Amino acid sequence: MDSVSGYLRKHCETLVKDVGIEAAAAATGKSKATLGRYYSTDPDHGARFMPVDVVARLEAVAKFPHVTSALADLRGITLSYDGARLNGKSGNVNADVVALSQRFAMLMAEYNQAIADGTITINETKRLLTETQAIQQVLLDMKLHLEQAQVQAGS
């Protein structure tokens, strides 16, 4: 399996786990086994990928668009959310700066624990990735709030 396939499979798995396997099955009309095959590293499922409509249904109920973000990362693209689709999510840049500082501190704490013994285990890597994704989400929220402030200022 090439690195792109592995990268996408990991993000598909993260997306399903974000939603929860039961909820993911209900949201997509796919069985839990089928969803599992989409991110399986078993060679028998190497040619099977999650269909785009399934990704769209899952990302609509997920906390974060994991697969879309992964695809954007592969192309070097920066994502921007449509403010009209956030259902009135509150917040402002000041709150975002505080959240970013807190998330960065949590990432550094995780990193400090991970390197304490000189080896970063797979579980430590997963925790670091989770914190990194949380920072990415805060940055996207912050970008949205800055764009909204720019529109309100008339620029």
List keywords for this structure.
155 residues, mainly alpha, 0% strand, globular
Description:
It is a single chain. The protein has 155 residues and is mainly alpha-helical. The chain has helices at residues 3-19, 21-28, 32-39, 52-61, 66-75, 93-115, 122-153.
Give a quick precis of the structure.
This protein is mainly alpha-helical and 155 residues long. Helix content is 70%, strand content 0%. Helix 1 (3-19) packs antiparallel against helix 3 (32-39), helix 1 packs across helix 4 (52-61) and helix 1 (3-19) runs antiparallel to helix 5 (66-75).
Q: Quick one: how many beta strands?
A: 0
| Helix proportion | 55-70%
The coarse overall form would be globular
Mean pLDDT: 86
Indicate the low-confidence ranges by residue numbers.
83-88
The main sheet comes to:
none
